[in-house]
Every structure is written in C-alpha cells, then in structure tokens.
Model the fold of this input.
Amino acid sequence: MNIEKNKHLNPDLQDFGNKPIMKNLALFASGNGTNVQRIADYFADNANVGIKLIVCNNEKAYVLERAKKLVITSYLINDKEKFYNSDELLQTLQQNHIDLLVLAGFLWLIPDNLIEAYPNRIINIHPALLPKYGGKGMYGMRVHEAVVANGEIESGITIHYVNQCYDEGKIIFQAKCALSPNDTPEDVAQKVHALEYEHFPRIIEREV
Done:
C-alpha cells in the first residue's frame, strides 16, 4: 500500500473561518478510468467540488496515469489484507477531508469500516438495470454479454448507495437504453457508456 502525491496540487479553498468550503471527492477505480476522466472534466471548473484522491487497487491500471495527468493525488492499495483489516485507507480519507466516495469501476467489495464511516456517502455505478445482472463477478463486459445472451430489449445504468453486499444498496438513479436484436456486447457497452458519461457526474454533483 502506498500513496503518491502529484506535484503542484492546489491547496483547499478556505473561507474566512479557515474551514474548507470545497466538498472533496475520492474516486475509486480498478481499470482504465474513463469514468474518472469524465468526472474530473465535469468538475474541473467547479469551485465547490474537488477531486482530492483517486484510489486504485491495481498497480497496472491506466487510471493511475490519468491521475498523474490530472494532477490528482493517487492512492494505491493492492494488499487485500490491509484493505479489509486495517484503518489505513480510512485514516487517509479522513485526513484529506473526503465527503463522498465514488466507485467508478472499482471491483473490490467496500470494507465495513468505510461503510460505517460514510453512511449513504458511498455511491457506485453499475452497467445494468439492477436488480438484474448484479452481484459478485458481474462487471464490465460480463454484464453486457449476459444481457445479450438473454435477449434483453433494454439495458442501462444504475447509480446506488453502497452497502455490505455487491450491488444491493438503495437505488439513487437509473437510465435506460433500447437494444436491438443485432446488438453485440460491444454495442451494448457503447450505449451504456454514453449513459454513464451523461448522468454519473450530474448525480454525483447532486449527492455531494
């Protein structure tokens, strides 16, 4: 587990009482980080919302390169034992005054200590219309392949609060897209990504 601070980070905006006026986000991702990029772009000129940390559990994930280019602090946690049985990440989040945790393609189940510390302050996006096609192991192309295999006529996104079970937290928002019988899993993925990019940053802004 290690934390990398990129250079030239801007300090938190302060009010006259020397208290942060900016709401701070921590984005969690395990892979490429396209949603992280979209969220960062969306909030780039927002004086009230800042992305303080990008948390990743995969040292080879491209999202870490995105963090460097975006000049956002990255936090690599690839030790499951420490992730689930220590307070190191929680302490880092608290030290950085994080207000909302956003799972943007993060594949590990969130540990109890984070859920207890951030009740209804952890949100996730799932690439299907829950409760269908959710649960452990259902992520990315696996979801879209299952949707196509079952001949679904629609798919979409679900944004929900995170609890102790995969994809079972209270639903905040859903958006749908129509599917055609000729759609491949890649076609479905493209339609779902469009919904993610359109709606996820807006719902985050509402929740923060």
User: Anything to note?
Assistant: Residues 185-207 form the longest helix (23 residues).
